[in-house]
Write a structure and sequence with these properties.
Layout: H1 7-21, E1 25-31, E2 45-50, H2 57-74, H3 76-82, E3 92-96, H4 100-107, H5 124-134, E4 145-146
Parallel strand pairs: 2-3
Antiparallel strand pairs: 1-2, 3-4
């Protein structure tokens, strides 16, 4: 993540956003897929597993805005990249069904106490694998939600 975000800042933003919208996040990963064109600004993609009742589209959008706003408040570099979408577009969120991350970890042979879901994924191939896995219709709760 080129904005020098640290895991603790992302964790705090996710925690604060989930508390604000009244949801519980079981697991999540975030990465920055490569833009489709060289002229497009990148954006972070959060893949989030919420426990219990699914958030509706407005709830997911509110969660996304709260994560973005909290990161702007926590990290000056992120704030400068997000100012007027100068270098970074608003994040996207894919809300997935409960158990999705466990199924993905099992598919990768990484299920068990010694392995944790990666929170920040800088490996393009690993993040592409996760995106492909959650893009299956039975894993995704709804299409990606854009904060903007």
């Amino acid at each position: 993540m080129g904005e020098h975000l640290i895991a603790e800042e992302i964790e705090e933003a996710v925690r604060a956003a989930s508390a604000t919208v009244g949801a519980f996040v079981t697991d999540y990963s975030v990465g920055c897929p490569l833009p489709k064109t060289t002229r497009a600004n990148p954006r972070h993609l959060y893949i989030v597993e919420f426990a219990g009742r699914a958030l509706d589209e407005l709830g997911v959008k509110a969660f996304c805005h709260h994560v973005d706003d909290r990161l702007v408040g926590l990290n000056d570099d992120y704030a400068s990249h997000r100012a007027k979408d100068f270098g970074l577009k608003p994040p996207d969120i894919i809300a997935v069904r409960p158990g999705t991350f466990a199924r993905w970890m099992k598919k990768r042979g990484k299920l068990g106490g010694q392995n944790k879901v990666p929170r920040i994924i800088n490996d393009d191939d690993l993040f592409a694998d996760l995106i492909a896995f959650v893009s299956r219709g039975d894993e995704r709760r709804r299409d990606p939600t854009w904060c903007g």
